[in-house]
Amino acid sequence: MKFAIISAGEGSRLSQEGVQLPKPLVQLNREAMIDRLIRIFAKNGAEQVIVIINDEVQATKDHLAKLKRNSVLPLEVVVKTTPSSMHSFYEISPFLKGEKFCLTTVDTIFREKEFTCFIEAFKKSKEDGMMAVTDYIDDEKPLYISTDDQLNITGFYDTMTPDCKYISGGIYCLGPQAIDVLHSCMEKGISRMRNFQRQLIVDGLRLKAYPFSKILDVDHASDIIKAEAFLNNIEE
């Protein structure tokens, strides 16, 4: 199973708030966020990790080049500036064809044990996809997810509806059909990851929600402290 990281954003909010490191290299408990993900993926049996970074920040390019030289795990690095996460996904999609894969953004913070259970559940599942979800809402623009009693995903919404107990955690485990849907979306001019997810439902793919206790994003300087406390099991 392959794993992929979208890390092509500018991290402009962090830099405006005084964080000097580019987002992928921001450290949580003395470990760069991108290093943390690659380490966790390796522990969960990754055959290969694909990373996309932008072409704007030399420090990130140098860091990934060094990782690629020294990594035992096959690491593919795509360097390209893209207008959105969905476009980044499209750029790395050739490496993900034909098999199950896990995709996440570089600033998605979760508990490692929950992630391992999530990956094992997806490997055993017959669904076309499994999405990490949480009922902990700490996102500026959450994507709400409706499910049935068996946690089958029935819809994705910008605002909460009565059927929405969870929001998207930004960790996507998907099968080969998802790549076809992605390419179809790009051909139709459909943009944004949330619209891609909606199209998965429209096209009849079977998606399951997998609840995590908490999933955080690091978008602001204050989120770094919050994420470290979360990973150290220090409750707010």
Task: Explain the layout of strands and helices.
Blueprint: E1 2-7, H1 12-16, E2 27-28, E3 31-32, H2 33-43, E4 48-53, H3 58-70, E5 75-79, H4 85-92, E6 101-105, E7 108-109, H5 112-124, E8 129-134, E9 144-147, E10 153-157, E11 164-174, H6 177-188, H7 193-202, E12 207-212, E13 216-217, H8 221-231
Parallel strand pairs: 1-4, 1-6, 4-5, 8-12
Antiparallel strand pairs: 2-3, 6-11, 7-13, 8-11, 9-10, 9-11
Helix pairs in contact: 4-6
Can you tell me about this structure?
By secondary structure, this protein is of the alpha/beta class. The chain is built from 8 helices and 13 strands. It has helices spanning 12-16, 33-43, 58-70, 85-92, 112-124, 177-188, 193-202, 221-231, and strands at 2-7, 27-28, 31-32, 48-53, 75-79, 101-105, 108-109, 129-134, 144-147, 153-157, 164-174, 207-212, 216-217. The strands form 3 sheets. Strands 1, 4, 5, 6, 8, 9, 10, 11 and 12 form a 9-stranded mixed sheet that branches. It is globular. It starts with a strand and ends in a 5-residue tail after the last helix.
